[in-house]
Design a protein that fits this description.
By secondary structure, the chain is mostly helical. The chain has helices at about 15-30, 40-45, 50-65, 65-80, 85-105, 115-120, 125-155, 160-205, 210-220, 245-260, 265-270, 275-310, 320-330, 335-375, 380-405, 415-425, 430-440, 445-470, 485-495, 505-510.
Length: about 525
């Protein structure tokens, strides 16, 4: 085994050159695709004829943020791989949620899922749900920028504000220039860089652990980084304080996939950019086939990094598991590999940013601008407004990231826990879509009560989680934050809806499961 210094050295000029070339490349993509964006279908949906394989890759990258890239290896390093049990459920829940929701959006040929809510429950519910999504998602993007920048700071002593401004500024600018096509094609390049970077780190890390890959697994399980909880009976029961249970993990994964496929414009905008439901299905299955092995590699990578640092004295190990991967990259890999891999991490941040601001600009344009402010806006007017909102959203996300840097001493427990807890706010939205699609009786009043219950209960659970973390016993688990809200919301919404007589079939055509067959799914 080699002996390495623990002090993080500055990266070399070669490393920074690789990173600069990457940033210039994505800017070039934005300039290239700035041509021909004369209408909203081109600027916001790529003309609705994007290749399914490209959209499948973009779907993976858009949701595989730095919180995943850092959080998964950090979780494996710190707590082991119990949470990896959820990766076996993830493909099933993804495909199930896709088949429940996405057909409706192709039948109704919408730009956003909130257009569906407008047709089912009216413009008030549409605006309320879209506004809630817009606000919660822009806060999440700011959190991604801040959390990622904190990790960069811990790994290579970069000031947080420099990372936020650099990544946020570049991501906003190329998205502003090139629109959706720039986002998707930059996602493709980012995917290649990410996979290549992860592969290089795995190779180097495994080579430094005695026994190679087998040694990584053996060392992890001998030192409490396996998944011992899955053999315990309590793991399959319910507990509000146990950090991870099977039921809690299943609920988190299920809620996440329901959100992505029902109301997350970031994910759905990619699927809607394909030419048909059949093409969208191919894109979705492609994303599942790509992301499943990739995430398992990230879990293994965390164990490999744990195995490497397990050979060093305690005072030479990272203080936080979330920083271990970056510390290994910055200190153990030869130039220009650190620059390439840091560029890959920057790619993950920018993918979350570009996908988020492009989708939020779409929601602002289609769900608010053309509905309430300028109903007769021409396509050129809408494209111009979309560009303005792209800039506004990007700047706002950057400001939120900088504000978090000024007001917070940390991002919570681990990156993965923090992301899961904050994403729980999104679970208030899927139940209203589900109620509209399942019930022939539900009205806008029922939908309003459902949204209110879901939001209030989930927000209360999040506050309880955040305040309980200072409790000596650790408080409640981050896993249960998003469980009560949707359960109570859909239960109360359904109970209220059965009081009403069924709505006319002509009013619901193509908007419920019962009436879906009355309208043909586009090119299915």
């Amino acid at each position: 085994m080699h002996t390495y210094p623990i002090i993080l050295a500055d990266m070399s000029l070669g490393d920074y050159s690789v990173m600069a070339l990457y940033l210039l490349a994505v800017m070039g993509i934005g300039v290239w695709f700035s041509r021909g964006n004369c209408d909203t279908e081109s600027y916001l949906l790529g003309g609705r004829n994007m290749p399914w394989w490209l959209i499948g890759i973009s779907y993976v990258v858009s949701l595989l943020s730095t919180l995943t890239m850092v959080g998964v290896p950090g979780e494996a390093y710190t707590n082991g791989v119990t949470l990896a049990v959820g990766e076996f459920m993830s493909p099933l829940f993804t495909i199930l949620a896709f088949h429940i929701f996405v057909r409706f959006y192709f039948v109704n040929r919408v730009f956003t899922p909130f257009e569906y809510l407008g047709r089912r429950f009216g413009s008030g519910i549409r605006a309320l749900a879209a506004g809630y999504f817009w606000l919660s998602r822009v806060i999440y993007i700011g959190l991604v920028l801040y959390a990622s920048a904190k990790v960069f700071t811990g790994a290579n002593n970069w000031p947080v504000w420099i990372t936020i401004l650099t990544v946020g500024g570049v991501g906003t600018l190329y998205t502003l220039l090139g629109g959706f096509k720039a986002v998707v094609w930059s996602d493709f390049i980012q995917f290649i860089v990410l996979v290549g970077g992860i592969g290089l780190v795995v190779i180097y890390a495994v080579a430094e652990v005695p026994g190679g890959a087998v040694g990584v697994i053996t060392h992890a399980f001998e030192n409490g980084r396996g998944a011992p909880d899955i053999a315990e009976p309590w793991f399959y029961g319910f507990s509000y304080s146990a950090r991870v249970t099977f039921l809690g993990l299943a609920a988190v994964i299920f809620n996440e996939k329901m959100f992505f496929n029902s109301s997350d414009q970031i994910a759905l905008q990619r699927l809607l950019s394909t030419s048909s439901y059949r093409q969208a299905k191919r894109a979705m299955y492609t994303s599942v086939l790509l992301v499943t092995p990739l995430v398992f590699v990230l879990w293994f990578l965390g164990l490999a990094i744990f195995g490497f640092y397990g050979q060093l004295p305690v005072d030479q190990r990272p203080e936080q598991g979330d920083l271990a991967l970056f510390r290994f990259i910055a200190t153990q890999l030869p130039t220009p590999i650190p620059g390439l891999i840091i560029a890959a991490m920057l790619a993950a941040i920018m993918s979350t940013l570009d996908s988020g601001i492009n989708s939020l600009a779409t929601v602002a344009t289609k769900d608010f601008y053309t509905r309430f402010f300028r109903p007769n806006a021409t396509e050129s007017n809408q494209v111009a407004f979309s560009r303005v909102m792209t800039l506004v959203t990007g700047v706002l996300a950057i400001l939120i990231g900088l504000l978090l840097n000024l007001t917070s001493d940390g991002i919570g427990a681990t990156v993965l826990e923090t992301a899961t807890a904050w994403l729980s706010l999104s679970v208030a939205l899927p139940p209203v879509f589900l109620l509209g699609m399942l019930s022939q009786r539900a009205t806008s009043g029922d939908a309003l009560v459902l949204l209110a219950v879901g939001w209030v209960v989930t927000a209360s659970m999040l506050v309880w989680y955040l305040t309980s973390q200072s409790h000596p016993d650790g408080g409640i688990s981050f896993m249960i934050v998003g469980i009560p809200g949707p359960v109570l919301a859909i239960g109360i919404g359904w109970a209220m809806s059965i009081r009403h007589p069924p709505l006319p079939e002509s009013r619901l055509r193509g908007l419920t499961f019962k009436s879906l067959n009355h309208r043909k799914v586009t090119n299915q």
